Every structure is written in structure tokens, then in C-alpha cells.
Write a sequence for this structure.
């Protein structure tokens, strides 16, 4: 009994001193496990005189129950502490500022191309795309551009492969060859725009780049006139530039149109009074256009007596430069984020 009293007296202190669940289990084995003093005493109750058994038995039960209670309390406290620690460790501070993930956006040229296409789609035009490596036939011959035309010189055109017009390969110098490809595969009426990259043997300067973008337009129907061309282009320019810019149409020459014209827009920089950007003319050239030459219709098997049409090719890079007042075309191709992020 003496031993039991001591055991019971020491138990609360020992149990409280335990700092983790594993040590608590070891202590539990020691205090009330199969090999514990209490369990051993219980097993030997039978060797006591019968009148002492109930008294000692009751004391043993009391001690056992008390110690078990203390252990349970301590276990609960340790588990709570462990959980608190886990919560603390895994705590998420929802007030922390977000990690700044840079989000990209479409390139100014892609945005401009899409905008031009959208305007023509809203006017009922279809959209087609063609190869950037073209045969001389599609790039020149079918477009009424004879072998002697200066545009075919190596000083203007980038050749991929020399040969007969059908085999000779060039980097297309304009999107106009798609007029031919489209008419070869579609019957009139035709209303189509063709966006795409084109190439020239040009040296880079403020308004020229060896690669740039055009949108070609072609309308072929029973009674298309120059007035349709003018009205369509005016509607496009108004939609793209708004009311602030004025446009004008000037006579010009292209082998694949007759008559031919150029469309100019009033200079964004000087508003028409003349400055360095517009070479003191007050105007910036944006596109070539005209009424489709009968020879072009003949090349694709259309009857020039039955149909007429207009065509145009607009420089998309120029549109972007003029719209945003960008002073060098190189900014569209250098991919300097400090520039691109502004658009
Ligand atoms: N292809 C010409 C160029 O790149 C532009 C052009 C002029 C396109 C007249 C046309 C057109 O469709 O009718 O300079």
C-alpha cells in the first residue's frame, strides 16, 4: 500500500512533465500497463487474506482510474498543442500581396490586323490566307506584270529559286497573288480580304522593313464601279481612324488594275500642314487600289465582259504607325517589351 500511495502521489507530476505523445504512451505502459506495479498487484490479490482483498482491490481500482484520467487529460492537452502547432505552421496570410505574374497580350500588329479584318468582315467580306513563298506566276505574271517589269528585279524581290515562271519561287512581295488563287477556286461574286506577311529587298528605314504586313481586298461582282471602291475604302478609313483623319484618293499605276489609285491619310503628326513624318506633304500613303484589269480576269478564266471588280492592298504596319504616332517601323519588329507594353 505504501508503494501504491507513493506511485499515486508522484503520478500527476510525472504525467504533467511529459512533452510529447510518444513519451506519454511509454509512461502509460509503465504506470498502468500489463507489467505495471498496479497490474502486478492486481494479479497477486488472490494471495492476500480474504478480508483484505476488497480494501486493497478498491484502492488499486481507484489508483488505476485516477492515473488513467490524468493520462487522458494530458493526452488531450498534447493533441491540442500539436494541432495548434500544425495550424500555425500551415497558416495562410490572405492579406499578403499577390505574386505579380506578368500577363502578356497580343502584339500591336496582330491587334491591327484583327481590327482591319473585323471591319471588312462586318461589311460582308470573307477571309483567306495564302503561301508566303509564291511562284513568279502568281506573284507577277497572272497579275499582268511582265517579265521585264522592274519590280521583278533582284533589287526589289527576294528570290528563293530561279526558273520558269511556274517553278520560280519568290517570297511574295505583296498579298495580291491571293487574288489569283482565290478567283481560281471561287466563282463570282467574290468579296474577300487576305491578311499576311510580305517581303521586299528593302533596307530598313523609318517606313520600310524587308518584312511587313498587308491586307489585300478583292470585290468582283456584276456591276462594281470605282464609286464602290471609293465608298468601301472611305468607310474602312472612317471605321479605323475615326473622324479626325481625312483621306484622299490620287491617280497611280499598278499593272493589275486600270484605273489605279493610291489612298493617303492626313498626317497624324502635323494634321496636314507638313512636317518631317510626312515629308512636308501633309499626307501619308496607306494603300494601293484600282479596278481589276481585264487581263487579270482572263488569267483566272473570268469573263471581263460579264464581271467587274476592285482591289486594294493596305499596309498594316503603316496603319499602326499612323494610328499610334510611332516614328519607326523597327519598333514593330524588335519586340522590345518597353515598346510593346504601351499598346
Ligand atoms: N500590291 C500592291 C503593293 O503591294 C498594292 C495594291 C495596289 C494592291 C493595287 C491591290 C491593288 O490589290 O489593286 O504595292
Amino acid at each position: 500500500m505504501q508503494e501504491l500511495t507513493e506511485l499515486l502521489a508522484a503520478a500527476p507530476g510525472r504525467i504533467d512533465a511529459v512533452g510529447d505523445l510518444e513519451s506519454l504512451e511509454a509512461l502509460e505502459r509503465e504506470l498502468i500497463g500489463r507489467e505495471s506495479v498496479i497490474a502486478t498487484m492486481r494479479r497477486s490479490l488472490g494471495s492476500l487474506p480474504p478480508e483484505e482483498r476488497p480494501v486493497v482491490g478498491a484502492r488499486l481500482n481507484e489508483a488505476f482510474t485516477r492515473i488513467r484520467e490524468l493520462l487522458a487529460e494530458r493526452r488531450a492537452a498534447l493533441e491540442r498543442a500539436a494541432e495548434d502547432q500544425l495550424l500555425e505552421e500551415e497558416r495562410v496570410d490572405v492579406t499578403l500581396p499577390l505574386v505579380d505574374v506578368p500577363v502578356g497580350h497580343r502584339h500591336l500588329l496582330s491587334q491591327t490586323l484583327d481590327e482591319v479584318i473585323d471591319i471588312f468582315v462586318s461589311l460582308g467580306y470573307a477571309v483567306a490566307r495564302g503561301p508566303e513563298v509564291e511562284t513568279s506566276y502568281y506573284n507577277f505574271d497572272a497579275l499582268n506584270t511582265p517579265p521585264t517589269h522592274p519590280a521583278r528585279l533582284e533589287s526589289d524581290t527576294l528570290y528563293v529559286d530561279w526558273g520558269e515562271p511556274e517553278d520560280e519561287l519568290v517570297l511574295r512581295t505583296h498579298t495580291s497573288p491571293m487574288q489569283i488563287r482565290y478567283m481560281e477556286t471561287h466563282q463570282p461574286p467574290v468579296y474577300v480580304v487576305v491578311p499576311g506577311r510580305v517581303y521586299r529587298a528593302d533596307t530598313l528605314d523609318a517606313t520600310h522593313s524587308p518584312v511587313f504586313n498587308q491586307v489585300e481586298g478583292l470585290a468582283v461582282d456584276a456591276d462594281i464601279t470605282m464609286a464602290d471602291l471609293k465608298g468601301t475604302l472611305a468607310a474602312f478609313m472612317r471605321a479605323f481612324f475615326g473622324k479626325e483623319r481625312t483621306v484622299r484618293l490620287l491617280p497611280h499605276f499598278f499593272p493589275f488594275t486600270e484605273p489605279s489609285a493610291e489612298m493617303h491619310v492626313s498626317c497624324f503628326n502635323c494634321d496636314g500642314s507638313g512636317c518631317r513624318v510626312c515629308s512636308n506633304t501633309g499626307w501619308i500613303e496607306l494603300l494601293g487600289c484600282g479596278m481589276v484589269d481585264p487581263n487579270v480576269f482572263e488569267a483566272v478564266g473570268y469573263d471581263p465582259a460579264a464581271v467587274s471588280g476592285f482591289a486594294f492592298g493596305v499596309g498594316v504596319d503603316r496603319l499602326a504607325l499612323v494610328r499610334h504616332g510611332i516614328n519607326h517601323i523597327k519598333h514593330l519588329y524588335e519586340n522590345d517589351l518597353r515598346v510593346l507594353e504601351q499598346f
Q: What stands out?
A: Strands lie at 126-127, 133-135, 159-161, 169-171, 190-199, 211-221, 247-254, 257-266, 283-292, 308-315.
